[in-house]
Amino acid sequence: MSELNPNTPITEWELDEWSKDARAELSAMLTESGIAHRWDDTVLLAESSREADIEEILDEIENLDHEIDEQDDDQDQADEKVLQQLMGVAQKISRNPTDGNAVSNLERLLEEIDAASAPGDMGDSVWRQIKDLASQVEDALVGGDRADEVLAVDLASRLTAILRSNL
């Protein structure tokens, strides 16, 4: 990184709200762009003549962070929707374990939630319990040589109760 010229005007950006990783990413981008800069704790110092370039990089990083936050929000909403669907399927199976559409929907929903993390403020243990019960319902209906409809109804009823109390 080139040194700041002490004879040129300097502009300061207070970035104390930025994480250490975000500031490190900014430094890397500034260096890559050939912009001389230095840090005074969380204050970025750079030549005022490069202010427009720096603002553009700051905006780029902030926009990327905003897009990631929006994707995270969308993921939480999708999980909520999937959990609502899962509850509806569990209710159908608890009433009629031979409902082929409900079983197919359960299999599809299990694929969606398999690798997902706990949505929103739901605890990981509750999330694991929901996923485990849904898998057990599926196993009871399609996992063996013969469907265990009584077990499936019991498990689906328990799954419905847990989902209802956590949505």
TL;DR of this structure?
This protein is mainly alpha-helical. It has helices spanning 20-32, 51-95, 100-114, 124-143, 149-166, and strands spanning 10-14, 37-40, 43-47.
Structural overview:
It contains five helices and three strands. It is mainly alpha-helical. The chain has two domains: 60 residues; 92 residues, Four Helix Bundle (Hemerythrin (Met), subunit A). β2 and β3 form a beta hairpin. α1 crosses α2, α2 packs antiparallel against α3 and α4 runs antiparallel to α5. The chain is rod-shaped, with a radius of gyration of 26 Å. It starts with 9 loop residues before the first strand and ends with a helix.
Compute the number of structural domains: 2
Quote the CATH topology of the largest domain.
Four Helix Bundle (Hemerythrin (Met), subunit A)
List low-confidence stretches: none
- Assign the CATH architecture of the largest domain: Up-down Bundle
Oligomer: single chain
Shape: rod-shaped
What does the radius of gyration come to?
26 Å
Give the strand order of the largest sheet, numbering strands 1, 2, ... along the chain. Answer: 1-3-2
Key attributes of the depicted protein:
167 residues, mainly alpha, Four Helix Bundle (Hemerythrin (Met), subunit A)
Task: Please give the structural blueprint.
Elements: E1 10-14, H1 20-32, E2 37-40, E3 43-47, H2 51-95, H3 100-114, H4 124-143, H5 149-166
Helix pairs in contact: 1-2, 2-3, 2-5, 3-4, 4-5
